[in-house]
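Sample 3 of the quickstart, ligand 3,4-dihydroxyphenylalanine:
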Amino acid sequence: MAAIIEIPWWNSYRRLSTVLCSECRRPYTLKRMRPRPYSTATTSATKEPLTLNGKTYERDDWTNVPESILSALPRKLHVQPSHPISLTRKLITSHFPKPTYAHHSTFSPIATTHQNFDSLDFPPDHPGRSKTDTYYLNADTVLRTHTSAHQVDTFRANESEGYTISADVYRRDAIDRSHYPVFHQMEGARLWDRTKVPGGNIAKAVWADLETLPKHNLIVEDPNPPTHPERNPLQEGHHSQEEAEAIAAHLKRSLESVVVTIFARAKEAAIAAGDEAAKTEAPLRVRWIEAYFPFTSPSWEMEVFWQGDWLEILGCGVVKQSLLERAEVPQKLGWAFGIGLERIAMLLYSIPDIRLFWSNDQRFLSQFKEGEPMRRFVPFSKYPECYKDVSFWVAGSTSSAAGGAAGGTGPGNAQREFHENDFMEVVREVAGDTAEHVRLVDEFTHPVSGRKSRCYRVTYRSLEKTLRSAEANELHKKVEDILTERLGVEIR
Ligand code: DAH
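Result:
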């Protein structure tokens, strides 16, 4: 029997299949932590086309993007001066100097399904394409789910050897302190051109470039070979082993020096805040683990040992040559990475709740200043929480199969499958940032009727004021009404 390894939710684009364990050589299956059926719920019955940034998008059966999400489009936290997301972007970008790297931070969040998925070799049935995971404007247009959506276009523009792209990205997701449907990523890439080196083999040039990178004395655990025929294959016919090894070494060193800086800054901030333990903290531990992305091979993730746990902080790999062919630069080869900015900012500044990034409260915003030494966030008084349960009979059956992209029935159909993300969406729509956490507290199947029941606990807490009980009741009642109306559930 193959072991089942549950993979963290945030990394949604890994392969769902059986691979060999790097240590024991036994097969194991990568499985998502949550079931991924696709569902059909959309948030609006209106047929009016969507107009965004002066362009019109016809609605269809795929449209599922609510107004509350669209209202986040103009916020662009990653470029707001002195915002912690923007400061984090700048800190990382400083490791990728011009002119080798060009920096982009203004690409539109509206992407075609081709850009977001097909151009990156996502298979047609990849769960990331499902309506439960992704915000669709219509069948062909999404709010980008990752900065990788711009990879092929940026390779095609061919304006520098490398680049970074920072942007807001959108995913339907759970509600808790570290998940928000809009977050920010930075993508980076570095390519070399075969036609510019003698003999067309770039390995030597890459090693020479690596020599110019800053050195560090970080202890890095990297137990696996640079490529592995089953687990992490070389792109045979495209790259020689020595080229892949050189690219991997350059990639790893570039990213290691980013984390060295991030954690050195976090430590300085902790010491400045009077955290005595930070002075004697054990040295930073970092490890590379093998990974899978449809658009790189070999691929890795970097994990950092942080507060007693291994924390995944980025994904990366050697760019699939098919992408570079699509971008009409087949003579180039190199690496790419993607990193989540909220996670890094939360750790750098000790920010306890992801919703704070969206706050307009000066008590939050005034704590961050461009050009000043990094300081830890000092939490301001927390307002009391108020939680309410909602129990209901689920309408359709919940399949645990991974959701496909094709098919799906439109709104108004009698048989609607229940998906947790649809529930999350209703809560977000009604309560916005006042929804702090949603947790499944009970689930059962009636022994006679076979009907399925779920009970969720919704924790409401405003970041800005004390929520009155009557206000929380009103919000919760609205959640119940929309649930019944839109998801076809029956409140118990
Ligand atoms: N796009 C990936 C994600 O959102 C992260 C990523 C992985 C980006 C590997 C890359 C890459 O450019 O090469 O999970």
